[in-house]
Amino acid sequence: MPELYIVATPIGNLEDITLRAVRVLGEVGLIAAEDTRVTRKLLARYDIHTPLTSYHEHNKRSKLPSLLAALIEKDVALVSDAGTPGVSDPGYEFVCAASDAGVRVVPIPGPSAITSAIAVSGLAADRFVYLGFLPRRRRDRLELLGSLATERRAMVALETPRRLRTALEDLLEKLGDRRIAAGRELTKLHEEVFRGTVSEALEKFVAPRGEFTLVIEGAAESATSASPEAARELLTRYREEGLGAKASVARAAGESGVSRREAYRIWLEIDAVARNQL
Description:
By secondary structure, this protein is an alpha/beta fold. It has three domains: 3-111, Cobalt-precorrin-4 Transmethylase, domain 1 (3-Layer(aba) Sandwich), CATH 3.40.1010.10; 114-219, Methyltransferase, Cobalt-precorrin-4 Transmethylase, Domain 2; 223-276. Helix content is 44%, strand content 18%. The chain has helices at 19-27, 36-45, 60-73, 92-100, 113-121, 138-147, 164-175, 198-204, 228-240, 245-256, 260-276; strands at 3-7, 30-33, 52-54, 76-79, 104-108, 128-133, 154-159, 179-184, 192-197, 212-216. The strands form two sheets. It has a five-stranded parallel beta sheet, with helices on both faces. Strands 6-7-10-8-9 form a five-stranded mixed beta sheet.
């Protein structure tokens, strides 16, 4: 019986493809591609002439019947523009429909922006949470990040250049000034890996360009339960040491588990009391 192959393709550098993937793409009867223009470049590089059809976010429901019909007669490969289909890319519905129809679904593993970014991040990520693309709406993004304030595992997120700075600002507000690694244009000509704190990333990426994969440090053990009392103690100490409001709030939020907004509210209270005592 024909099979459906889920084929991972390069995330940038066209040399990053497995021998097995090249063979399968050349042997199947049809390739369903997220963007046929992108996939044609890959196929041309390896002299593959398999017929292509489009399968993307906007036609995935209407194309399913014809793709399932194709699977009756021939093997089909599913590819996305980069990486593995079904992971932040179209594919989930096709896999479910094919499986329900009794078709064997075969993974062809390969390049991954997620594991590539983790490997070079310099952060402890033996366990991690994959967030995909962060929500577009700020309210939704803040809600998600707030729910992760005490998450001990590292977190991996994808972000576009247009939304990178607002995402970093929200990270700073909800998670504090944690360590972060930002992989930009991984495996491509202008690849760059930044390692530092969230505030340092904001200073670095003033006019971001390229696609980003973010690896975010998990919460410290002391921050696994938000503690306004701990935040107050930290902020009092930082103020006495002469640290400014912005740096104090960011550090206290990250160490105590409270939101940056809550930390700033406490800072204002401490500052007002101190000024009244002068």
